[in-house]
Specification:
Elements (H helix, E strand, L loop, with lengths): L9 E5 L3 H10 L9 E5 L2 H10 L4 E5 L7 H11 L4 E6 L4 H10 L3 E4 L4 H19 L5 H16 L3 H18 L4 H21 L5 H4 L4 H8 L3 H40 L6 H8 L3 H12 L3 H19 L4 H7 L5 H12 L3 H8 L8
Parallel strand pairs: 1-2, 1-3, 3-4, 4-5
Helix pairs in contact: 2-3, 6-7, 6-8, 7-11, 11-13, 14-16, 14-17
């Protein structure tokens, strides 16, 4: 019996009627369903010979055949390959056949004439079960740490550590888990998806680097060797850092303009949407840039700035609370009082009584 050291997925089709067997072979695109090789024979005896020579992962067989029926074939194939997925196709809608299929643990039982949709569904289910049985035990937490670490390196524009983490992924993580090419690609998709989410969060247009929605995935899936995939990952992350380095100065400049606007207009009715319109940005994009540079959301920063200005006024000027509220951009005294109390843990009136005779506290 030939051992299977590859990720190739093989199916054996057993059908004693030549016309039906040839029809099944042409009925669906097997490769599109994830099956790499399809062999066909006309009876159970031939099938056992094929199974003894090569490993098959899916057995699609008629039940009622000469020499050896489908249930007997399925039982014998399970002796050789305990995880083989069995799909029965039968022209008999008979409870005894169905009972046999259930007892064997068949993946699916479909009736002839075989409907393309039912066949496709059955094969997809079988392929999924095969893939589950092949899954190596991944350290998902470690993979998440690598993905997060790489995203953090991108935000820090740290080329050296980015290269180190990619080397660690391929040299340690991939090898220790004995991952094949397809599993490595799946891990890379996970890592890059995390990067894209990070870039979107800070307001970056991922299409600038990755092209349209599917380009990056098409490129990734085309690589034939893990070495090529490794080099591509390094080049991709280097390109992201280069792109972000170029936009970093622009982001700092626009954030400075927002800060200047707040300093000069905090006493008026201002909003991120209004500022974004004047700077020709979308409010979402500008808000994300502002958070990236300052570490705070626009409203959080604006409220904090207004509270500090209010505390200065309360410490130096003998004004009514509503006047102070108006000076720092509030038309609603309750809203002003709530924000002030949240920030200083005291109402404006209490704060005023404590500080009116003292210099303003350092902020």
């Amino acid at each position: 019996m030939g051992a299977d050291y590859t990720n190739t997925l093989r199916m054996l089709l057993v059908e004693d009627e030549d016309i039906e067997r040839n029809g099944l072979l042409r009925q669906v695109d097997w490769q599109a369903l994830g099956i790499d090789e399809v062999s066909d024979v006309s009876d159970g005896i031939e099938a056992m010979k094929m199974l003894s020579e090569n490993e098959y992962h899916i057995l699609l067989t008629d039940i009622k055949m000469p020499c050896m029926n489908g249930t007997e074939l399925a039982n014998k194939s399970r002796v050789l390959y305990p995880n083989i997925q069995v799909i029965f196709a039968s022209g008999y809608d008979d409870f005894s056949y169905l009972k046999s299929a259930v007892s064997i643990g068949a993946c699916e039982y479909i009736l002839k004439p075989v409907n393309t949709e039912e066949l496709t569904t059955a094969v997809i289910k079988a392929v999924d079960e095969v893939r589950k049985s092949r899954e190596p035990e991944l350290d998902v937490d470690e993979l998440d740490k690598i993905a997060k670490g790489l995203s953090d390196c991108i935000l820090a524009l740290d080329c050296e550590r980015t290269g180190y983490l990619i080397d660690y992924f391929f040299d340690d993580f991939v090898r220790s888990a004995f991952l094949g090419k397809q599993h490595v690609k799946s891990c890379c998709i996970h890592i890059i998806s995390r990067l894209q989410i990070t870039l979107l969060y800070i307001g970056y247009d991922v299409n600038t680097i990755f092209g349209d929605e599917n380009t990056v995935w098409v490129k990734l899936l085309r690589f034939e060797t893990i070495l090529d995939l490794r080099m591509w990952m390094k080049n991709l992350y280097a390109a992201v850092i280069e792109e972000l380095s170029g936009s970093a100065n622009e982001n700092k400049t626009v954030t400075s303009k927002v800060l200047e606007y707040i300093e000069s207009e905090y006493g008026n009715d201002i909003s991120l949407k209004k500022i974004a319109g004047e700077l020709f940005y979308s409010s979402n994009h500008l808000g994300m840039i502002f958070r990236q540079i300052t570490g705070k959301g626009f409203m959080e920063y604006l409220i904090e700035y207004r509270m500090k200005k209010a505390s200065e006024i309360l410490s130096k000027e003998d004004l009514y609370i509503y006047e102070v509220a108006n000076l720092v951009g509030y038309s609603s005294v309750p809203s002003f009082t709530k924000h002030f109390k949240d920030y200083f843990h005291a109402t404006p009136a209490t704060y005023k009584r404590r500080h009116i005779n003292y210099d303003a506290p350092q902020q």
